[in-house]
Amino acid sequence: MKAASPKPKLYSLVRSRRVIQLLAVVGSFAIGLRHLMPGEESTGGSFDAFCAFGGVETLLPYLFNGQTLKTTNLLNFTILMGVLGVSLVAGRAFCGWLCPLGVVQDMFAGWARRLSGGGKHIRGKKSKARFPLTLPPAADKTLRYAKYLVLAAILVASLYMVYPPLHAFCPMRAVFGLKLTPLLWGVLIIFIGGSLLIERVWCKYLCPLGALLAIFNKISPVRIVSNSNQCNSCGRCDIECSMGIKDVPLNLDNPECTRCLECMDTCARDGSLELKVVKR
User: How far apart are the first and last CA of the chain?
Assistant: First the structure.
């Protein structure tokens, strides 16, 4: 079925999201820059102390031993509670709106499209670019479970560690920490290469925080809903989904959805997809 032409939109939540994402990236770099200064340990803790996932890494040691792991502190729990609060209301919206690693991955995916023959991006139209690649469905489905294994492994390992399990090779530190060890240089190179090859590769397959937040898509009241009387199954939203969700209108509570609202923004039929508060 031929897709309808998109109508001009007076206001786009996606534009607001991009402003918020830019602020998240600038803020992360500012934290990294701050920790290049002398005396960081005595004036506010390490870079890890500002990481939401640091609260997960140090949770079990704190509960069982009464102490946080090195480079983490109680600030991690405050940030984690904020992220969980957002997730209770709007599912994995943190991943789609506030996570700076997601922004960087989107940037590299855009570069990969333009540099591999995609040209200027036309919303809702499938790109002819060679990259980023799309994995075969069977491999993609299997690899999606890897982040849950990573989360479980980190929780177990945290009980036996002095530093957070991800400390030595955390991509957040590699991208924004600005203090790179040889190992973090390797992580940075792999992260950039993976992001150029596969769109949101970290989010889809490896991010333990994403694994933790995925369940909230099933219970959060703020969600995207589809009107089957309006939707003509044109497939525009599938093309724009950076998480590679298929049949988007039928899978709006999919645990992989980051609530980025790109599906709504690219939809050509008013009322097909709407952001609503759903009562349970």
Answer: 35
